[in-house]
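Support request, please re-run this one:
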Amino acid sequence: MSFDPSVFDPKKISQETAAFNEMIHNTISSVPPTYTLPPQKIRDDREAGLGLWPVNKLDEVSDRELPVAGGKLPVRVFIPETVKGVYLHIHGGGFMLGRAHHSDVSNVAIARTCNLAVVSVDYRLAPENPYPAGADDCEAAARWLVENVRQEFGVEQILIGGESAGGNLAAVTLVRMRDRHGFTGFSGANLIYGVYDLSATPSSRSWGEERKYVLTGKLMDWFHENYVSDGRHTLDDPELSPLFKPLHDMPPALFTVGTLDPLLDDSLFMHARWLAAGNKAELAIYPGGIHAFNAFPIKLAQEANQRVMVFLSACLKQV
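Re-run finished. Output below.
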């Protein structure tokens, strides 16, 4: 369970990472705060190639619609030449932003390196569709995959993962599949800087409002208030914040986070609770890593993404 505390030493931050962080800080400081803009404008701007986040929709990844209760669920699917398992991916974006195709490049890399077919869920977004819409979509995708994985992909092993809000939804899906459907057969969980307590862990509460690195307290509040807007749930409800759920019978998990991420404690706490519940878990902490650092072309990102692929491949071999 222990980790090397030297990862938190500022001297461990490489010059490349420090320069990258400064670039992100300067870029973010020069534009209006995200929470001051209409969600649809943010989405449209990103699709137009504006802002920090690149969008590279790959022709080799297919759009599909899964037949689920209540209608059809859009997903992005990529099947490599060799398939040993299926990776159910859930994208991030604060429950309000992002699309499945925004992860095409990283998902294709995982698919080819780990011999995993990838199914990425295009779940409904808040505020138009607040909780439980997105969580219901992810659960529906998992149920479909459990019921059809052998017929559709010729394999049995299923892994799950996601980033940020997608990490939350991946953990929520694991709990729902266990509690609602009696399924505990996932082979691994790849949980990347997830938010597991929407009411805010200490690192998140103490982060402040300076717009340094992607997230601020106001931005996180904006995300969560729009996601949980039905008046029937609180942010610390275990159904939304899986840190408070019993975590027995979970698959081996890799928790990835950077030292300069306000969601640092979410991964520290969730990793500890995962182990305490009798599961296997690894914790990868990256010096100077900001929120979403692994989405950019820097060495720190390459190291983190490589460890993810090693982890996913190992999960396949353990069964």
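The chain has a mean pLDDT of 95. The chain has one domain: 23-317.
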